[in-house]
TrEMBL record:
Keyword Lipoprotein belongs to the record: yes
Residues covered by region (Disordered): 186-212
Organism: Gluconobacter frateurii NRIC 0228
NCBIfam families: Pal_lipo (TIGR02802)
InterPro entries according to UniProt: Bact_OuterMem_StrucFunc (IPR050330), OMP_bac (IPR006664), OmpA-like (IPR006665), OmpA-like_sf (IPR036737), Pal (IPR039001), Pal_lipo_C (IPR014169)
Keyword annotations from UniProtKB, A to Z: Cell cycle, Cell division, Cell outer membrane, Lipoprotein, Membrane, Palmitate, Signal
Ranges of residues in domain OmpA-like: 98-212
Subunit structure: The Tol-Pal system is composed of five core proteins: the inner membrane proteins TolA, TolQ and TolR, the periplasmic protein TolB and the outer membrane protein Pal. They form a network linking the inner and outer membranes and the peptidoglycan layer.
Source lineage: Bacteria, Pseudomonadati, Pseudomonadota, Alphaproteobacteria, Acetobacterales
Reported function: Part of the Tol-Pal system, which plays a role in outer membrane invagination during cell division and is important for maintaining outer membrane integrity.
Family in the record: Belongs to the Pal lipoprotein family.
Name the record gives this protein: Peptidoglycan-associated protein
Subcellular location: Cell outer membrane
TM regions (residue ranges): none
Classification via CDD domains: OmpA_C-like
Gene behind this protein: pal
Amino acid sequence: MGMGASGQCFSEDTLGVAERLLSGSDEGRGVRNNAALCRISVPEKEPFSGLRHMKFKVFGALGLALVLAACSNGKTDTGNSTGAGAATQEAGPTPGSEADLVANVGDRIFYELNVSQLSEEARATLDKQVAWLQKYPQVSVQIAGNCDDRGTEEYNIALGQRRANAARDYLVAKGVSASRITTISYGKDRPTADGDDESSWAQNRNAITSVR
């Protein structure tokens, strides 16, 4: 006797048919292994005729094969579904979006104290923005100039505007249409970093490009 997937024992003859149907598969090996657990003798209540006995063996073996095949297919489908979901979750930002600009280009440049001239590092970032804007000609942007919190409100508003204008003029000189760019100055009113130390001040002296 052998044990089926649900714990039911099958006759040696039935297991022989099932093993032949599933020869070489994991299910076939499982049938042979489970057979050892059911080596018991169960007397039949009545003898089967030759034809009835053969039908019983064939139907029993086919039923066992179908159950095992269904279980195998169910596991495979679940794996495929999981893989598709994982691929969807790994998708990056929408091309041409604000998130795309921040992640793949860089949305801000930085300035020295009381300076509105562009550094070499700032020009390198703006060059990347030029290439990105040329790739997405439908996108318009705004450049906001910002300062650290030292100095008067009036002075910082004017300085922030010069910083925004410097970034805009560079983009336009590189071929970006001026009609796609607006500028604004927030002075010291929108700091990127809180704190009264050089590290915070350096982060707050910037011009930030955002998608409109």
